[in-house]
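FAQ

Q: What does a record look like?
A: Structure on top, sequence underneath. For example:
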């Protein structure tokens, strides 16, 4: 399922094709039992990724946990991963946090699209 969802991103951004396996490994490594949602956001989700200029943004919502922002790289491309607990994600939506609201509204869900409605209902 995860690979199929990544293929949607690659169809929109053919220059990411060479990163497919690395992205799959990265997303698999951040997934866990308490992960509610993993969503690819920003230019990669919107089909505007530009090799050498864009980064890759991932939002991860877990049942609970502190907010953490982590930057890693795949073949010299920055990947920014934002981890939020469910409560912090709801608060971010209430305060109209642009990144979180755009990610949840326009991003490509790699996991947990069925949880999107639950998160928005808590707002």
């Amino acid at each position: 399922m995860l690979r199929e969802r990544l293929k949607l991103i690659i169809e929109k951004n053919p220059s990411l094709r060479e990163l497919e396996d690395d992205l799959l490994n990265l997303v698999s490594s951040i997934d866990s039992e308490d992960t509610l949602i993993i969503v690819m956001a920003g230019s990669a989700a919107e089909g505007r990724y530009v090799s050498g200029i864009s980064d890759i943004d991932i939002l991860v919502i877990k049942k609970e946990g502190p907010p953490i922002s982590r930057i890693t790289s795949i073949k010299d491309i920055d990947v920014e991963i934002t981890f939020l607990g469910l409560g912090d994600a709801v608060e971010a939506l209430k305060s109209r946090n642009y990144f979180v609201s755009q990610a949840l509204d326009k991003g490509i869900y790699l996991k947990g699209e069925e949880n999107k409605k639950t998160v928005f209902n808590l707002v």
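Q: Is there anything notable about this one?
A: The chain has a mean pLDDT of 94.
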